[in-house]
């Protein structure tokens, strides 16, 4: 049928109205879909935390998100706080620093002698939030780079430096450059030209850094009891002296006496007990130190019942105790537990002579018990389950004398295991 002229405007009017309605609907939908940056940031942080819980790398996900829009790119850039520079990423350091401006932690891991250059480059960027720096290199101490770095970055509180020490002045430079350090890791020194002069500088360095709270000196093979006795650090909270083969329990006693804030000591693979056999009674004069909460003494073959009884008197508030593969510990472990009734975590893995059948005191706060590779049996498990009814986890790997009967005792008496859905690990 032929269209009349009067119908033509009506057609155009309806078309315009329809377009206007459609455009308005799209605007409303976009408004509903729009979220401000802080909301997207919360969503991305949730993704990051979820990946961390599952030990997944969040960067592939963030890389994908950054390609969605400029808004997402800006948000993901602001959420990366830690960066590792490997040999393969050295050519891209400048671009990475321009992109990620909120870095708080930086790890320079280089097999080549470029650490000085990277540190000098870092000093040119306003890394105002950077608090942690780790350097791993098989080359010499990067004195020039750290000097340039320290001139513009004043916020550093944590330093880990694993490299070759060639001069005792290297250590003193650390104190001069970073006086605000609270965490210092000088473990595994690579090579030393003059061991006597490194030795003389460890105490000098620490005396210039009185704010240090966490100190890692593991595998510093030349350390001995006399040197440790010279450490006076009022704010020290934790120290790691594992694999320092010349240290004995005298070093431990010096630490708790000279460092009043100390809560955690790690001295695995040392010589605790080696020099004191038959003379442990004279060690009881060292006093009581209720502040110490965690003690890691695994793989000390000379650690004996006599010494751990002294520890029980000295450290009545211990909550975390690791004695794995200390084969001289036997029946007196029960006496130790009687005195340290605040324990939450006890590791006796590999202590095949340890006998827990004589436990006659309730330890309600014990949550984690590791008896793997021991000679524990069903009867012992029955005693343990009655006196440690708050257990959340018990590890019994390679315990050949344990049967389902013993496991049943634990399940029946340790009701927290059921309520928290924890399992007995065989």
UniProtKB/TrEMBL annotation:
Ranges of residues in domain F-box/LRR-repeat protein 15-like leucin rich repeat: 293-413
Signal peptide from the UniProt entry: none
Record's GO cellular component terms: cytoplasm
Annotated SUPFAM superfamilies: RNI-like
Region called Disordered, residue ranges: 1-22
Record-linked InterPro entries: FBXL15_LRR, Leu-rich_rpt_Cys-con_subtyp, LRR_dom_sf
Protein name: F-box/RNI superfamily protein
Species for this entry: Medicago truncatula
